[in-house]
Design brief:
- Helix content is 39%, strand content 17%.
- By secondary structure, it is α/β, with parallel strands linked by helices.
- It has a single domain, classed as 3-Layer(aba) Sandwich (Glycerol-3-phosphate (1)-acyltransferase).
- It has a 7-stranded mixed beta sheet, sandwiched between helices.
- Helix 6 crosses helix 7.
């Protein structure tokens, strides 16, 4: 019953004011959405430039996204309550949050699409930062396909200015893929899976947004890791 309530509340808001506001503040340049599976469990993984990324991606998607969001957002009075109503999952960043892991796996078992930003924070104009392991761990533990998505242009979306100067936002969808599922989930396997996810995102971004994934190759990263 609770899950049904979240779904109804989600679409009642997305199909009305969320899409209306997004339509008013941005021009959309979207390519590759036909690659998005219309049903079944999916880990939706993208880069993160601006606070506008989640609402814009939510508004353009034909499927519901169960977003994972940092715990700090849920601690904000009123807004935190609204995040819960949308069915978002709070996560304590940069630590092993077993509760968030459990709720995320439950969402995937129900065949939903789980929205994640592997960097764990906004990268802004500095470009992609190092991916955190959570996205790869979830995808590998549940054997769920990863849907890579790249978004840029949102760094120019600033309210209230955006209502008077519409910004062009670009979104690219890659091919969904499965990470190899090892017999044992080792640190090395997770690092390799994380690197694969981040590079699939990076290859769809313009060079200036690729950050550390613009020049660093897997071999170089391996050598750097071995030198520690």
């Amino acid at each position: 019953m609770r899950n049904l309530f979240h779904a109804v509340y989600y679409w009642a808001n997305v199909l009305t004011w969320v899409r209306l506001i997004v339509l008013l503040v941005i021009r959309r340049d979207i390519q590759g959405m036909e690659r998005l599976p219309r049903k079944g469990a999916l880990v939706f993984a993208g880069n993160h430039l601006n606070l506008a990324d989640p609402p814009i991606l939510t508004a353009i998607m034909p499927r519901r996204i169960v977003w994972m969001g940092k715990q700090e957002l849920f601690d904000i009075p009123v807004f935190g309550f609204l995040y819960h109503l949308f069915g978002c999952i709070p996560v304590r960043r940069f630590r092993a949050d077993l509760r968030a892991l459990r709720h995320s796996e439950e969402a995937l078992r129900r065949g939903l699409m789980l929205g994640m930003f592997p960097e764990g924070t906004r990268s802004g104009e500095s470009g992609l930062g190092r991916g955190e392991p959570g996205t790869a761990i979830l995808a590998m533990r549940t054997n769920t396909p990863v849907q890579p998505v790249a978004i840029w242009g949102t760094e120019g979306v600033k309210l209230p200015r955006a209502f008077f100067q519409r910004t062009t936002v670009h979104v690219r969808f890659g091919e969904p893929f499965l990470l190899p599922r090892p017999e044992r989930l080792t640190k090395e396997a997770v690092e390799e899976g994380t690197d694969t996810i981040m590079r699939r995102i990076a290859e769809m971004l313009p060079e200036r947004y690729r950050g550390i994934y613009a020049t660093e190759q897997p071999q170089a990263m391996e050598m750097k890791g071995g030198a520690r």
